[in-house]
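User: Design a sequence. Structure:
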């Protein structure tokens, strides 16, 4: 399967072309975990994650408005950014499905206030919800980072709708 198209052209802004253009931006892959109102762990795959501010320490990600998980993420005062390793494609796919219990069989540790840290990730950012902002057909979630953990595992990346590995080009 071809990941990259070599053709670059000025097209009118049609949704498919825009989607394809956006998808050419390489991202990491995260699972945003929260506890629902009953204290049950919930997770959702997101690559819209980005650092936002160092001082104060803020991050941002966005969730589409028509996500069935939206009410859960809006009520959650805390969330964890679980940054996936390159051997966690199954975790990414599992948390991208509209299944009721995506945590079934997934091993994790309870982080601050019990919000799940999924085992085997390369990094965790434990956040307090700072603010939400409207962003077209998405809602932006800004989190204040309260605790971080990091390992030296290789990251999972995503581009053109495909999972890829990251290869260093500089020493
Ligand atoms: C690699 C990848 C990245 C994704 N990033 C986002 C994202 O940033 N925001 C979002 O709303 N959905 C994103 N999705 C889709 C959601 O994970 C998916 O729609 C959601 O888990 C379905 O559950 P829901 O029905 O509860 O919304 C992504 C999916 C994949 C595979």
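Assistant: Done.
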């Amino acid at each position: 399967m071809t990941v990259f198209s070599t053709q670059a052209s000025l097209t009118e802004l049609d949704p498919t072309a825009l989607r394809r253009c956006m998808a050419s931006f390489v991202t990491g892959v995260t699972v945003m975990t929260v506890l629902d109102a009953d204290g049950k762990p919930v997770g959702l795959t997101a690559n819209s994650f980005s650092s936002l501010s160092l001082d104060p320490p803020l991050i941002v990600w966005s969730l589409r408005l028509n996500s069935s998980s939206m009410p859960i993420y809006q009520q959650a005062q805390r969330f964890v950014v679980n940054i996936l390793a390159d051997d966690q494609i199954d975790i990414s796919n599992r948390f991208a499905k509209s299944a009721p219990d995506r945590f079934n069989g997934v091993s994790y540790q309870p982080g601050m206030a019990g919000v799940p840290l999924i085992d085997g990730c390369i990094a965790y950012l434990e956040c307090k919800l700072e603010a939400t902002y409207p962003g077209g057909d998405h809602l932006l979630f800004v989190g204040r980072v309260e605790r971080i953990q990091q390992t030296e595992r290789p990251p999972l990346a995503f581009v053109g709708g495909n999972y890829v590995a990251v290869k260093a080009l500089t020493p």
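The CA atoms of residues 87 and 171 lie 23 Å apart. The chain has three helices and twelve strands.
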